[in-house]
Each structure stands twice: as C-alpha cells, then as structure tokens.
Amino acid sequence: MQNQNFTTGILVDQTPEEVFNAINNPRGWWSEEIQGSTQKLNDEFSYHYKDVHMSKMKLIEVIPDKKVVWLVTDNYFQFTKDKSEWKGNKIIFEISEKNKKTQLQFTQVGLVPEYECYDICQNGWSNYITNSLRSLITTGKGQPNPKEGGFNEQLLQQHNKK
What we know:
This protein has a seven-stranded antiparallel beta sheet.
C-alpha cells in the first residue's frame, strides 16, 4: 500500500545546521501568531489564525541538524465537520545531506487524502515549506503569515468558493 501521508521536500546549498535553525523558527516561515517555545525537546507552542485554525504542538523529538518532530496535541478548523483532524498527527522535518547539498523532507503523518482539510492543508504546507521556509533558509527572510491575514486567508477564500 502506498504511503498517503502528505510529504514534500526541498534541496538547498545551506548547511544542515542552518536548515535545523530555520525549522525551529516557525515565526520566521509559518506564522507570526505562534506563542510559546519552539526550540527544544518538550517545548510546546500554539498557532492560531483568527478563529479559522488553531493548533497546539509539542516537540517530541529533536536531533540537532537531523530531525525535528512536532506532535499535534490539539487542533481546531472552523471549516471542517470532523473536529478531530490533525489531532495526534506528527509533523516531521528530516534533514540529510545529498550531493553536497542539504535535503529537507517534510511529512505530516496522518494528513491523508480522506481528510476534509487535505487540499487546503497540503497547499498550505507546500507553500510554507517550498517557498517560505526555503526563503528563510536561503535568504534569511521567510514569508510567514503576519499577525492578521496572509496566505491562510487566500486558501480559505479559495476553499469557500468550491
């Protein structure tokens, strides 16, 4: 059976340490609306976008320059009927060296096509990883959601038009 968890990745010239440090700065590539610590094992943080999406994460695995795993301890989407989506999912960032470059493999274990949010979530993560996080790693500046609005708003508007 094919693995249906959502996954994407990037390849950059920067070091594994630079990639690791960028991952651990989600305010710099995901959202400025993150509260709490995002650096070390057992740190917990929360994310929210207006009243549309709120989640709580716990860092359950941190291997410097190699791997970071967030456990979704709580989640809420305003736009899904199934309020359990994402709860218990693991968000995994795996860093490796490939052909003298650094590869980042992103996987959300549990984000599967059967989820109501799958399309909007996979579009969101694809943007955050391949554009915003890549930019933070390569230029020092990502495109996180600002305190209000941003990419999530665009995705939600597209989702609501369907």
